[in-house]
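Methods: example folding runs. The two proteins below were folded one after another, and each record is reproduced exactly as written to the output file, sequence line first and structure-token line second.
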Amino acid sequence: MEVICIEDQAFYALLDKAVERIKSTLDGGAKERWVDDKEAMLLLKIKSRTTLQHLRDEGKIRFSQPQKRVILYDRLSIAEYLEKHAKDTF
């Protein structure tokens, strides 16, 4: 059996890099903050653009309109909306 000795700092730095690499592999890389309507509907598990517009108009999810016909939705606000409506288990 072979034993390898390294300093604490080097060990934890190596461990952090390994965790980062595993996370990026599982997530498929970094996710964009702003998503289009199709991805927003997937995240919210809704099928109607009218429902998405309703959430937008009531200010329940953040959006940006960089061009006249382009509307992007904030992934973080969608996650916050879902978390706000989550029910705790017994």
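Second run, written to the same file directly after the first:
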Amino acid sequence: MLKEMLQNHNLIRLEADVEDWKEAIVRGVELLSKAGIVEYRYGDAIIESTEKVGPYYVICPGVAMPHSRPEDGVKENGISIITLKKPVYFGNADNDPVNIVISLAAKDNTSHLDMMQEVVALLSSRSCIDRLLEAKTIDEALAIFN
């Protein structure tokens, strides 16, 4: 399911060149917005929330999963994945710097759980994370989800 969504909606970018954590969020949300999954304002909501409560979504070393509430512009469930050319700091002492940003959009509290199981499986394997970081083409990145 996740592989098809990523492929069909063009939701993967590799080696994105960003200046800081805000630009990393904007880039991930842009992919979701172009696919019609979220409204562009969704990224503003994530940034605002991060500035208020911190980068709680930097979930493991090198990986951030920014997200916000459904009412902040989510139209349907979706995930975008970007790898960063240079890691950036989100302000999470335990897990910075970040070089993978998985932007999550959930339209409610439950319908995205299947999609999340696939992401958790990816993140639970260091070799999958490394393969994603080493991917030079979208096809190489998508092969991780087989």
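Comment on the second run: The chain has one domain: 2-145.
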